[in-house]
Predict the structure.
Amino acid sequence: MRQSPFLIGLLALSVALNVYLLATRHGAPPPDTRDTVVAGEAPSAPEEDAGEAADATPPKPPASANSDWRVFKATVEHSIARAFEQLGAEGPAVAAVYARLFVWDLDAQQDVLKGDRIEVVWRPTADANYDVAVARYVSGKLGKTLDAYKYLAPDDTWPSWWRADGTEVPFRLVDGPLDDYEQVTSLLKDRPTHAGMDFKTPVGTEVTAPRRGKVVQTDWNTTFNGKSVELEYEDGVHAKFLHLDATKVKPGQAVKAGQVIGLTGNSGRSTAPHLHYQLERGSTILDPLEYHGSSRRKLPAAALEPFKAEVQRLRTLLPAE
Ligand SMILES: [Zn+2]
């Protein structure tokens, strides 16, 4: 896994997107005094937490937006982020959604070369986000094309993105706090002040303790964190679960792995329903992907035929040069 170096590259996208979001945000209350929020909070308290860069008070699609898929192709000159500038105001948000699909395989610093090709089929969504049907990245450095096709696997609740060979593009935690979720919408260092991993999921989704431990505190800094739970695992690592709709445990209580500790929500400084999951060992923030381990799913054999048919259909959305 090489997600860490990529994150630095995605930073530029995130910063650009946040600037854009700030510029387009209307009527949001002024932020609380940071000093008040940070006091007593972990070394790097999460900022206003959107669940997803492109999800955060997302830019409204233009009035002319419709549900038609749009095709964007570009050749990289300097960076992926700059290539997407050709899309204008929507560029940063679409770039963030696109880049997140390749964070798992592509080191945005080491692997992005002038002359690489970007291809994406995208559209604004009804909830003012951006959706991607097909994304391809032709990498000179890797000597191959990375691809991602949106597909709803049998028994899944939400579509995901899959390689043409039926391997899922995003990794999943080996033992995470959610059985199921819509998407990982932010990784550890997506944003300079963001210290956790975000999972987009509907309000009310059960959050379980990934490891055995005890409850350190609940509902602290609620203006910022909303309803929240902090656990200490048996190895001394502290885990924070923020923006909950409800907490199901009390401080001092012992919890077993798999025990429900709360329900996901959109509380505190959060602009979209999601879970913020943050790990700390002392003053060090840990990456959940490294701490828990991660793996990629494969489509079951029975799903491969329908998936390949869908890949063929999706490819027709991306016209040849
Ligand atoms: Zn977060």
About this structure: Residues 46, 49, 186, 194, 196, 198, 276 surround zinc ion (CB under 6 Å). The longest strand covers residues 130-139.
